[in-house]
Amino acid sequence: MNGSSWGVADLPDLGDRVAVVTGANSGLGYVTARELARGGARVVLACRSEARGRAAVARLLAEAPGAAAEFGRLDLGDLASVRAFADELPYDRIDLLVNNAGVMAVPYGTTADGFETQFGVNHLGHFALTGLLLPRLLAAPGARVVTVSSMLHALANVDLRDPNSRRNYRRWIAYARSKSANLLFTHELAHRLGGRLLAVAAHPGYAATNLQTAGPRAEGRRGTERLRELANHVFAQSAEAGALPTLYAATAPGVRPDAFFGPSFAMWRGAPAPSWRAPWTVDDRAAAALRSASERLTGVGLDLPAG
């Protein structure tokens, strides 16, 4: 099955499912959480800001009366916060984890644990979260882990000789490396978990969210911020449309392990469809090397069965 005419009306009944969506206070994450909740899932909106996260829950419950949604504080740039979130999550099983949160093309900085911000938040934070929640994912028959990558992953492969870009930081290359890491992580999960858990990935194409403007706004580059706002208005599809590949990957029947979905028209916009990915993101040795490095950096092991 492909998603050539797939929309939110095609979501299956998600009653009795528990879903965790990171970065769910706005943009793609919020739309993903809202539609999963409308489908009947109990959704945890995992957000860094408590104020924005609780406001998003209130908005979701207003837009989807009768839905089950709650806030959980999660800062992917702080491994102590990741551990606390996992420890405090009050569910014995998790049916769906959507690794959606991310930062894009920000100035050089480091996380609370000293990792380059984009690699630390986009990959290592989600790697640790997935590892910590893995026993509860494996306890749910048919559980899925959906990791949101980007078509811009094609700009660069992961460099494990310098994962934190200390030698030569270029913001877009660092972003691309983090998004390639998302795909390699998905490949490793799919390869090692076999039929016990479905690990897939998605990307939104070019969707209008605050991801494009957050970096220049933080730096005070008002001109760049306005240009990106204009580009979002003219060229981008909506967050509602951009979330469809993620929702398809998370819920559609017939999805295969390690699949990668994006918009059908030139990876840019349109209904969900299988997406092209760079060949380095399906390299078994590279995926295993990234897993080993990520385990060492985060202190979180993925105790997965071989094969």
How would you characterize this protein structure?
By secondary structure, this protein is of the alpha/beta class. It is built from ten helices and eight strands. Helix 4 (117-138) links the parallel strand 4 and strand 5. Residues 223-236 have low confidence and may be disordered.
Biggest pleated sheet: 8 strands, mixed
Q: Specify Rg, calculated over alpha carbons.
A: 18 Å
Helix and strand composition category: alpha/beta
Distance between the termini: 26 Å
Give the ordered list of helices and strands.
EHEHEHEHEHEHHHHEEH
Organism: Streptomyces musisoli
Family: Belongs to the short-chain dehydrogenases/reductases (SDR) family.
InterPro entries: NAD(P)-bd_dom_sf, SDR_fam
Protein name: SDR family NAD(P)-dependent oxidoreductase
Short characterization:
Belongs to the short-chain dehydrogenases/reductases (SDR) family. It comes from Streptomyces musisoli. By secondary structure, the chain is α/β, with parallel strands linked by helices.
Summarize the helices and strands and which ones pair or pack.
Elements: E1 18-22, H1 27-38, E2 42-47, H2 50-63, E3 68-73, H3 79-88, E4 96-99, H4 117-138, E5 144-148, H5 171-193, E6 198-202, H6 211-219, H7 222-235, H8 239-242, H9 244-251, E7 260-265, E8 269-274, H10 284-298
Parallel strand pairs: 1-2, 1-4, 2-3, 4-5, 5-6, 6-7
Antiparallel strand pairs: 7-8
Helix pairs in contact: 1-2, 3-4, 4-5, 4-10, 5-10, 6-7
